[in-house]
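Action item from last week, closing it out:
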Amino acid sequence: MAFFFLQLSSCNSDDIEIKITEIENPKNITTVFIDTTTNDIIEFSLLKGNNPNLVEDLIFEINNDTIYKYVPYFLNAEKIIATFEHNGKSVKVNDKLQISNSSINNFNLIVDYSVEALNGKTRSYTVILESFTKLPVILINTDNESEITSKEEYIEGSLTFIGKYYKNPYFKKDIKIRGRGNYTWKQPKKPYQIQFEEKTSFFDMPKDKKWIFLANYADKTMSRTRLAFELGYMSSLDWTPRSHFSEVILNGEYIGTYQISEKVEEDDHRINIGNNGYLLEVEQLDKMKSDDIYFSTPRNICFSIKSPDIIPNSSEFNYIKSYISEVESILYAQNYDGERLRTLIDMDSFVEFYLINEISKNNDAAFWASTYLTLKPGEKLKMGPIWDFDVAFGNININDNWLTSGWHMNIHGRWIAMLFRDDVFINKVKEKFIYYYDNKERILNLSDTLSKRLKKSRIENDKVWKTLGYYFFPQYAYDFNSFEEEQEYLNNWIDERYEWLKDAIDKL
């Protein structure tokens, strides 16, 4: 039996020299040099053998410090064992030692691996597993997998959020969920409202309990409401809802792409009406429920008092009704008193509201439905926030609103139409439209960006709902058979609409 003696020495800053000497034959010496600087991950994979929930082995690509894999189906990678090979001393995730084929991590998140060399230096790798459409995914499970059949009654459930690129990228919380909407609730793809038990930051939006899941069933591009919101962000309106797109899986079944939006409601970071203000909504009278607080004006415009809860015929109720009635009477008076009106309404907010809805030819905004106003005692009546644009931007066959030419709000806008008797309003419209026109490319660029972001989503969503190439009311009767054609129509419509308005508004 041979015996050996090992001698270690440092020959330079990077290597360790190891001399192996056979004791019985001292002249038999083997010298080995070990590089102390290596800290590379050489291979990385997720193997089905270690992870029964995988349908296949996933072999990742290593590109510099990024380790990446994409799979075209949804994969919930919450508890996954990785297989990897490295040439360093050790590997850690969040200071926890990692053992290949053993350590479990949540690959729904971006996972940072740190490889330490023998000399103590470390190298970081970012491991990214993307799946399905690459959008965030929301998993909703109702108790006992109960169906959501009511717009009034919540049912209990839980929600899992998977959105690796957000500050709060992964969480599970109990929720309540119900349906919402009027016409949209009658469509095959249902919109929803959820409520968390406590205020929660969703997609990095400010914390709140209630959130809206917009289905966008009538909008095959799924981007019209988001484009309108962008106009709202450009405006001087007090608040415009923020939103993000996500895939939604309900009780294990994929139900499509949804736009998750802040709810139009009173809140200090949503509609801030203070301690004594009011949020009003113009809605159709036949949509009012028995517990709604509302009144109709002499022009048969129904105003619902959304916030706060007040008693019918109370002093607050009568104050709101009287204020609204006075504004309307001035607007329709034979002897129009613009000076008096401007002491009652915030003209700038009416201008912004008008232009956003005229640019988009938003049918409902003509004081028909989903039209909001705020009123604070001691302040002026304001328009906003904007809402509901799935059948705007040429996506409707009512009131000639599929045409890029012609007026909408000026003719059908009721209160807004009457404001065109006021030179102050007209001049403000002319001035503000220049700003919107100068930002036309911002809207078109966003439209293209959304189209790229939603490219896979539109396809997956259509596999479920099969709307592409199918006409349903109130869409304009364009029978496009590809999302590229839908997108081209939308962009051309926006561009032509801006150009028509440029000349038409200049001539007011």
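Closing note: The chain has a mean pLDDT of 93.
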